[in-house]
Amino acid sequence: METERDIEAALLRRLQVAAIVEASTLLLLFCLAVPLKHVWGWPLGVKVIGPVHGLAFTGYAVALLQSIGAGMWRRGEIGWLALSAFVPFAGFRTWMFFARRAAALDTHRLER
Whole-model pTM? Predict the structure, then answer.
């Protein structure tokens, strides 16, 4: 039987993966695909990476909504976590935040 801590740990792992994928695809879109399109006239990068990033963003949003439904976050954290998906490089900081929270959860589990 899964405990509440097991569910929270699983949601945190899902959020970690979603955050790093979303942040990486946003970085590729801004730093590679958009310059290729506007500087060198090669729009294929945006046509490929754009939808990939859209899927990654949707995956992060779904994972975040699931964790909100589980009551894992305070109101201020929800706003910050949602906003981080729109700011380049913020997703990497969010990923570290999830990693620290998961480590604290594991430490607490080991102490019991």
Answer: 0.88
